[in-house]
Design brief:
The complex is a heterodimer.
Chain A lengths: L2 H13 L4 H27 L14 H18 L1 H6 L5 H26 L22 H28 L6 H27 L12 H27 L6 H32 L4 H8 L7 H20 L1 H4 L2 H19 L1 H8 L14 H44 L1
Helix pairs in contact in A: 2-15, 3-5, 3-7, 3-8, 3-14, 5-6, 5-15, 6-7, 7-8, 8-9, 8-13, 9-11, 10-14, 11-13, 11-14, 13-14
Chain B lengths: L6 H11 L1 H13 L1 H8 L3 H4 L9 H19 L4 E3 L9 E6 L8 H9 L12 E6 L23 H8 L26 E6 L8 H5 L5 E3 L5 E3 L9 H5 L6 E2 L14 E3 L11 E2 L5 H4 L6 H5 L5 E5 L6 H8 L2 E2 L11 E4 L3
The chains are: A mainly alpha, B alpha+beta.
C-alpha cells in the first residue's frame, strides 16, 4: 500500500480511538468552534462594528491575542536550545512537541489576524506575486512572510519526523538537523519582527520603545515552556513519555531567569516613564492606575503579582522541584504574560488616542466568542497532533527494538 | 444571442476562460466560500480588480465605468467618477488661521456632505478640538465633544438658530439635530484647532501599509485605493493625527445626500471594512476648485493653494506669517500649516 495513504489511515484510526475524557474534550472544543464560527459569520455580515473597536482604539482583543501567541510559537521552539545544551534525555520528543505547539500557535495567530481585518476576501494582496506586499517598509508585510515561512518549516519538520518514525526508518540527520537549526533563529525572528511592528509606530509612544523586542523575547521564554511543562507531565502519565524530573526542573529554572529579565525590563521602562514624567507618562498611567475610566490596570496588577510569585516559585529549588507548586507557577505565568502582552500592550498603546481622547475599550461578546473559537481550533490542532505523535514515536521505538532483537538472535 | 446576455454573465464567461485567473479564484473560493461570498457580494470584477497604479488607461476606464454603474444601481442616481491624475508642477498645501477659527464645525459637516461619508454611523474627516486658552495645544486637554447636544427634542428657539446660516451653535453630528446644541461658540477662554489629514511629506501611514493600498500622489495628496485596502488598520495606528477612519459598518448615504461629482481616489462611495481619509477634496482641487471646508468657512480661516506657485496665497502666508505644524518632533513634515493671522 502507498505509505502516505497508510500513514493517513493510521492517523485517522488513532484519532477515532480515545476514552471518554478525550471525546468530552473534543466535543467541548467543537462546540466552542461552532459558536466562534457563528459569531464570526455575524461579524462578516455586519462588519467589525460587532466588535468594540472604534477609530480611537482601532486594535483590540484580536491583535492582543495574536501578539501573545506569536510569543508562544517562538518560545516552544527556542526550548530546543537548552534541551540540546543540557542533554535532556528525549531530545527528539522535546523538539517534536515544541514544534507541534508552534504549529498550533501559528494557526491561531493567522486566524486572529484574519478575523481582525476588514476585508478578508483581499488576504491575497498580502502575499508576494499574488498581491503587492510593501517590502521593505511595512513590518506587517515582514511579519506575514516570516510567520508563513516559520509555519511551513515547522510543519515540514513535524511531518518528516512522524512519517519516518511511522515508516520504521530513522530520520536522516542531514535533512533534519539543518531544518531544526534554521527553525531556532526563525523563532527569534518572528517574535522580533512582531515586536518591531509595534516598536516602529512613532505615533504611539508606549510602543515606540527600543526595549520592546527584548521584553517580548523574555516574556515568550516564560509563556511557551509553561504549557510544555504541564504537557510533558500529562504525556508522561498517559503516553509513556520518558522525560526526567531534572529536565522539568531545569525548564522551570530557565523560566525563572527569563521572568527575572522580563520583570526587570518592565521595571526599567516604568522607571523611565514615571521618573521623567513627560506627557508620555499617561500611557503608563493607563496601564497601572487607569485614566478616565480605563480598565486595563484591574488586570495588570494581578498579572504583575502573578508573574512575580511565579518567579519566586521557580527561583527557589524547593518549590521548583515540587510538581504542585511548579504547576501553579506555570498557570500564574500564563495569566501574567497573557495579560501583559495582550491587552496590557495593545490598550495603553492606543489609549488615549493620538489627539488625547480616551475611549474605554472592553471586548464585545462577538470578540470573546470568536477568540474562544480560535483558541479551540488551536487546541484541537494541538490535541490531534499530540495524539498521533505519541503512538507513532512509541511505534518506531518498538520497531527499532524489534530490529535490534532480530540482529541479536 | 451572446449580445443579449447581461454584462456580468459575459464577464464571468471571460473569467472562466482565463485559466490563471480562475485558478486563483478557485483557490480563494475554497478557503472560506461563505465568508467570501459575503465579502465580495458576488462581484467578481471588483474582486479581481488590479491595484490602481497597475491599471492600464483602458482598464482604468472600465473600472471607473463599472463603479458608475454600481452607483446607479445602488443609489438610483447618475454619477461621474473621475480618475484625473495630478497636474505636474502642483503641490498642494493648506493653512489654517487659528486666530480666526471660532469652532463652529461648519467645515466638518460640509466635508461630510461633499465627500459622501457614511452618515450612520457618521464618519467625519475633520475633528475640531477645543483647548482652554491657558493650556495651549496640549492634547491631553483637548475636548472634541464641546457643545455636545443635550438630550430631548429641539426647542423652537434652537431650531431657528440651527436654520440660520449665521448660527454660532455648532452641531457635533448632523444626526444629533434630535438633541439641542448646548452652547454658543467661541466659548470664553477657549480656542479651537481643527485637525484633518496633514498630507505629510513623509507619511507614516504610507510606510506601514502592508499592501501599498495608500500612497502619496505627485501633488502631495495621500490617497487610498478602496478596492485594494485589506482593512488591517495598521495605518490608523501609525497616523499621529487621527486622520484615518475605518468603515466599521456598511457605509450609509441617502441617495438625496449623495454628491454625484466623484473621484476614484476621493469621494466615491466606500465599502465596509476599508480605511478612508481627507484627500483635500481631490475631486474639486484637481479641477481648480477649493476644498469644501475652505469654501464653507464663515470666518475665512482656511487657506489653500499650490506651494510651487510663487504668487499663491499659501506662499504668501508661509512668507509673511509665523506658521507652526503639529507634532513636528515626529518629522512627518505636514503640508498643513497653522498660523496666527491676527
Amino acid at each position: 500500500m502507498n505509505p502516505i495513504v497508510n500513514f493517513v489511515k493510521t492517523c485517522t484510526s488513532i484519532w477515532l480511538r480515545g476514552n471518554k475524557y478525550y471525546w468530552g474534550w473534543m466535543i467541548f472544543l467543537v462546540l466552542l468552534i461552532i459558536s466562534g464560527i457563528a459569531a464570526y459569520s455575524n461579524q462578516v455580515v455586519h462588519g467589525l462594528i460587532q466588535t468594540s473597536m472604534r477609530d480611537q482604539v482601532s486594535w483590540g482583543f484580536y491583535i492582543g491575542n495574536f501578539t501573545f501567541l506569536v510569543g508562544v510559537a517562538a518560545a516552544a521552539v527556542m526550548l530546543v536550545i537548552p534541551a540540546y545544551v543540557y542533554h535532556w534525555e528525549p531530545i527528539k520528543e522535546v523538539v517534536l512537541l515544541g514544534e507541534m505547539l508552534a504549529i498550533s500557535a501559528i494557526v491561531m495567530c493567522m486566524l486572529f489576524v484574519t478575523v481582525d481585518i476588514g476585508r478578508p476576501d483581499r488576504m491575497l494582496h498580502l502575499f508576494p506575486f499574488l498581491g503587492r506586499p510593501n517590502f521593505p517598509n511595512s513590518l506587517l508585510s515582514w511579519d506575514v512572510l516570516v510567520l508563513s515561512l516559520y509555519f511551513l518549516l515547522n510543519l515540514i519538520i513535524v511531518l518528516y519526523i512522524l512519517f519516518t518514525s511511522f515508516s520504521g526508518r530513522h530520520y536522516n540527520p542531514k535533512i533534519l538537523i539543518p531544518l531544526v537549526l534554521i527553525s531556532i533563529p526563525s523563532a527569534i525572528s518572528i517574535h522580533t519582527v512582531t515586536a518591531f511592528l509595534y516598536d516602529g509606530v512613532v505615533a504611539r509612544p508606549f510602543w515606540n520603545a527600543s526595549i520592546l523586542a527584548p521584553r517580548f523575547l523574555a516574556s515568550a521564554f516564560c509563556s511557551g515552556p509553561a504549557i510544555l511543562i504541564i504537557l510533558f507531565q500529562i504525556l508522561r502519565k498517559v503516553a509513556g513519555l520518558k522525560i526526567k524530573n531534572e529536565a522539568l526542573a531545569k525548564i522551570a529554572e530557565l523560566m525563572a531567569y527569563a521572568m527575572f529579565v522580563n520583570l526587570f525590563l518592565f521595571g526599567a521602562e516604568m522607571f523611565k516613564e514615571f521618573y521623567s514624567h513627560t506627557e508620555h507618562v499617561i500611557y503608563a498611567k493607563v496601564l497601572l492606575f487607569g485614566v478616565g475610566g480605563t480598565k486595563v490596570h484591574y488586570f495588570m496588577w494581578p498579572a504583575l503579582i502573578a508573574s512575580f510569585v511565579a518567579f519566586i516559585l521557580f527561583l527557589l529549588p524547593k518549590t521548583r522541584n515540587n510538581f504542585y507548586t511548579m504547576n501553579i507557577g506555570c498557570l500564574l505565568i500564563w495569566f501574567g504574560v497573557y495579560t501583559e502582552k495582550g491587552m496590557g500592550l495593545v490598550i495603553p498603546g492606543l489609549t488615549p488616542d493620538t489627539l488625547g481622547e480616551i475611549y474605554v475599550y472592553s471586548p464585545s461578546l462577538t470578540e470573546f466568542r470568536v477568540a474562544a473559537g480560535i483558541f479551540s481550533i488551536g487546541f484541537l490542532v494541538f490535541t490531534l497532533l499530540v495524539k498521533i505523535a505519541m503512538p507513532i514515536m512509541n511505534m518506531s521505538e518498538t520497531n527499532s527494538r524489534k530490529k535490534i532483537g532480530h540482529t541479536n538472535t | 444571442m451572446k449580445k443579449n446576455l447581461p454584462r456580468r454573465v459575459l464577464a464571468r464567461r471571460k473569467f472562466l476562460k482565463d485559466s490563471v485567473v480562475s485558478a486563483a479564484g478557485i483557490a480563494a473560493g475554497l478557503s472560506l466560500p461563505g465568508v467570501l461570498a459575503g465579502c465580495i457580494g458576488g462581484d467578481l470584477d471588483a474582486f479581481l480588480q488590479k491595484h490602481f497604479l497597475e491599471l492600464t488607461p483602458a482598464e482604468l476606464e472600465k473600472v471607473v465605468r463599472r463603479i458608475e454603474k454600481d452607483n446607479l444601481k445602488k443609489f438610483g442616481k447618475t454619477t461621474t467618477v473621475s480618475a484625473k491624475p495630478a497636474t505636474p508642477g502642483v503641490s498642494f498645501a493648506y493653512a489654517l488661521d487659528l486666530s480666526r477659527c471660532i469652532g463652529c464645525r461648519r467645515c466638518v459637516h460640509a466635508c461630510v456632505k461633499e465627500n459622501n461619508q457614511s452618515r450612520d454611523p457618521e464618519i467625519q474627516w475633520i475633528r475640531v478640538l477645543e483647548f482652554p486658552k491657558e493650556k495651549g495645544i496640549d492634547f491631553s486637554e483637548a475636548n472634541p465633544y464641546y457643545c455636545a447636544p443635550s438630550a430631548g427634542p429641539l426647542s423652537d428657539e434652537q431650531k431657528e438658530i440651527l436654520a440660520n446660516p449665521e448660527s454660532q451653535y455648532p452641531l457635533y453630528k448632523k444626526s444629533e439635530t434630535e438633541g439641542g446644541s448646548a452652547c454658543k461658540v467661541p466659548r470664553t477662554d477657549h480656542f479651537y484647532v481643527p485637525i484633518q489629514c496633514q498630507q505629510c511629506e513623509d507619511p507614516p501611514c504610507v510606510k506601514v501599509c502592508p499592501v501599498r493600498a495608500t500612497w502619496k500622489e505627485s501633488d502631495g495628496i495621500v490617497v487610498v485605493d478602496y478596492n485594494w485596502c485589506i482593512g488591517c488598520r495598521y495605518c490608523m495606528a501609525a497616523c499621529p493625527y487621527g486622520a484615518r477612519h475605518f468603515n466599521w459598518a456598511e457605509p450609509k448615504v441617502a441617495p438625496d445626500d449623495l454628491n454625484p461629482d466623484m473621484h476614484y481616489l476621493g469621494n466615491r462611495p466606500r465599502y465596509r471594512g476599508v480605511v478612508e481619509k481627507c484627500t483635500f477634496c481631490i475631486q474639486r482641487t484637481r479641477n481648480g476648485r477649493y476644498p469644501a471646508c475652505v469654501e464653507i468657512c464663515p470666518v475665512g480661516a482656511r487657506k489653500f493653494g499650490n506651494l510651487l506657485d510663487p504668487k499663491s496665497e499659501i506662499r504668501s502666508i508661509l512668507e509673511h506669517k509665523r506658521v507652526l505644524i503639529l507634532k513636528n518632533d515626529l518629522a512627518t513634515h505636514p503640508k498643513f500649516f497653522y498660523f496666527y493671522g491676527l
